[in-house]
Amino acid sequence: MIGQYIKAEHLKFKRAFARKIVVIVPLINICFSFLMNAGFFVTGTFNWWSIIFMPIMIGLLCASSHQKEKKASNYNGVFSAPVDLKTMWYAKVAVIAIYSLASQVIFLGFMYMMGFVIPQFATVNLAIITASSLLWATTLWEIPLCLFLARRFGFAAAVTVNLLGGLILGIMSASESLWWLNPWSWSIRMMCPAIGIHPNGLPLENGDPLHSWAVVPPAVLLSALLFAVLMVATKRSFSPAFGTGGGVK
Fold this sequence. Notes:
By secondary structure, the protein is mainly alpha-helical. The chain has helices at residues 2-12, 17-36, 41-73, 76-80, 85-117, 126-137, 142-153, 155-174, 183-195, 216-234. It has one domain (1-238). It is globular and about 60 Å long. The two termini are 30 Å apart. InterPro entries: Lanti_perm_SpaE/MutE/EpiE-like.
């Protein structure tokens, strides 16, 4: 049954700017990284991707999903329809997760094309594919959180909280021993062994303990657990009892 709900949610994004975000944000990320430091293009691209552009994109996708419902009928059409609200909430999360995965594929495609234009700056290999996969897996938990923030507090809250979470909280703790306590640091820390980049944007030196792959299994497990917890916890917000971007009614 959830497949039909996913199709319906996907159709809501038809001709919407949100679909363009999946292409535009990876492209901006690559251009920005190239202009900032072409000499460390690959490592720089993944660093900015993990601390700024992925959080922004997820926040925008979730906020756009909220705006579509609010502008259409202020959620009245959804709540008056004979649908299972819990399943619809799960479908909303699933569609944005698929869009997030699509953005990683598009990002890899841009990196591959860059390899033809400027061979010394870009290439697609196992390390890059692994880094993209880890980045997607460790940011899934942000989707139900941002959907909740958008519905509860509005468009700006979803984007701002997720951006500041990655840009400030994520960088602050990603290189520390207690990195695992901060969800926003998980994706950033994964870039250390996968790409060899420090959370501060500098390439890791040989022998740096941040190269260790031992952090990957707990990060992926923690992300999966938090994703499941937030999916269940936030589904309660998708009901007429909650306001549409500013409090409980």
